[in-house]
Write a structure and sequence with these properties.
Layout: H1 14-26, E1 32-33, H2 34-41, H3 45-57, E2 61-67, E3 75-80, E4 86-92, E5 96-103, E6 108-115, H4 122-139, E7 147-154, E8 158-159, E9 164-165, H5 179-187, E10 191-195, H6 196-207, E11 216-221, E12 225-231, E13 234-235, E14 250-252, E15 266-268, H7 269-272, H8 275-284, E16 298-299, E17 302-303, H9 305-320, H10 324-348, E18 352-356, H11 364-376, E19 388-391, H12 398-412
Parallel strand pairs: 4-7, 7-10, 11-18, 18-19
Antiparallel strand pairs: 1-3, 2-3, 4-5, 5-6, 8-9, 11-12, 12-13, 14-15, 16-17
Helix pairs in contact: 1-3, 2-3, 4-5, 6-12, 9-10, 10-11
């Protein structure tokens, strides 16, 4: 049986114990008996009985069959009732805002996108996003009262304590937008605000269930390059909740250096692998980018992100088709990122690296093997243990899914604070 968080047999900790039991059941897809719950959580049989009765009455778990184990009467199995509660995730991207609705098990029930509204009129931003959230919930036939809350994943920097989006890249008008409280007032739901790389890491940790790694780095490749960190099953946020800005790591750029003779050089990984820069280089090399080509993406500082996205789609399609130029180019992008990740692996001694994000998913077929090889074969790699390198199965919507998982994690994971189901 999986290792579960330990409970406390005190009446004042009733809400905490509910999350202990829910977390244990959620992490066991086959369900658990009350005897197994008591053994795994350290709660007394009476406390388990009281807690499970409350959760059954609340519709969050159900009795589902029995099993015979040795002598004695058969044990009733308790399973999570996934469609009893839901969470909304919102990912604010410079080009589009993605919305997802997850059930308690973390399965996507519904999703939608809107163009990213200009924050020149903050009230309009909130109205647009609130209407999208309400439409998502209503369109899925979900009762609003069954929605635990809304999680927002935003590019950093953010002021998490105040719920403010401060100054995200490629969103020049999104300065000091009090998004958390304004969206909460407009929707009536509790709202959590998180940096996108951290939200992605939380989603990866929450949805992995029993197989969740204790320590890992989540390499997030969107309009920028960042790293979400989980240490000892806890996301690393930093004092201002802006941890993960790894773009300034110096790295051997290889053929992406842009030198005339292709001899390479050193530079910051974030500046090296910005999608708009990569699209320009790919176009110069004759890499097929579909109908979008490399034209009209704009100059540095004035980037047409929609055009970049279309060109990246073309690159991804060429990689999937096995085009040699596209495959080699995507592999070099992966290798550069892998060389940067070695610094993170050395610093924190993690044994698992997860790659993901909206721009990563489209080149993963070629980029992941190259990143894996760059990490394993690095001459400066310090840890002697194997480092597992994988792609997130969450796809391009990983940040939105992670944002919803912030809400689910607050509701289902046993912590003494921010518990949304304690009453």
């Amino acid at each position: 049986m999986a290792e579960h968080r330990r409970g406390a047999n005190l009446p004042s900790l009733g809400g905490f114990n509910r999350t202990v039991v829910l977390d244990a059941i959620r992490r066991s897809p086959g369900g658990l008996s009350r005897v197994e719950l008591a053994a795994g959580t350290g709660l007394s049989p009476q406390t388990v009985s009281n807690v499970t009765r409350f959760l059954i009455d609340a519709g969050m778990i159900v009795e589902s069959g029995t099993v015979v184990s040795g002598r004695g009467k058969p044990r009733t199995i308790l399973r999570l009732e996934a469609r009893s509660r839901f969470a909304v995730g919102v990912h604010v991207d410079p080009a589009v805002v993605t919305y997802v609705l997850l059930d308690l098990a973390g399965s996507v029930v519904a999703e939608s996108t809107t163009s990213t509204p200009s924050a020149e009129d903050p009230d309009q931003v909130v109205r647009t996003m609130a209407a999208a959230v309400d439409g998502l919930v209503g369109g899925a036939g979900v009762a609003p009262e069954s929605v635990l809350g809304v999680g927002i994943a935003s590019p950093g920097p953010i002021d998490a304590a105040a719920g403010i989006v401060l100054d995200p890249p490629f969103l020049p008008r999104w300065r000091d937008v009090p998004l958390r409280d304004a969206l909460g007032d407009a929707t009536g739901y509790p709202v959590l605000l998180e940096k996108d790389v951290t939200a992605a890491a939380v989603g990866e940790m929450f949805l992995a269930r029993e197989s969740a790694a204790r320590d890992f780095a989540f390499v997030y490749f969107g309009t920028g390059f960042g790293v979400g960190l989980v240490l000892d099953h806890e996301p690393v946020r930093g004092s201002g909740s802006n941890a993960g800005d790894a773009g300034h790591i110096m790295v051997d750029q290889g053929s992406l250096a842009g030198t005339p003779d292709g001899s390479g050089g050193r530079g910051e990984v974030g500046a090296t692998v910005t999608p708009d820069r990569l699209v320009r280089i790919a176009a110069e090399r004759g890499v097929p980018l579909g109908e979008a080509g490399g034209a009209d993406i704009g100059a540095d500082g004035d980037v047409d992100l929609a055009a970049v996205d279309r060109a990246w789609d073309g690159l991804g399609a060429a990689v999937d088709a096995g085009d040699p130029l596209a495959t080699a180019f995507a592999a070099e992008v992966g290798a550069v990122m892998g060389r940067a990740v070695v610094v993170i692996v050395n610093l924190l001694d993690v044994d698992r690296v997860v790659f993901g994000g909206p721009f990563w998913a489209r080149i993963a077929a070629a980029a992941l093997p190259a990143a894996t090889a760059a990490i394993a074969g690095s001459p400066i790699l310090v840890p002697k243990h194997p480092v597992t390198v994988v792609e997130s199965p969450r796809g391009a919507d990983v940040a939105a899914v992670g944002a919803a998982c912030l809400v689910l994690d607050a509701a289902l994971s046993p912590r003494a604070s921010t518990m949304l189901i304690a009453h």
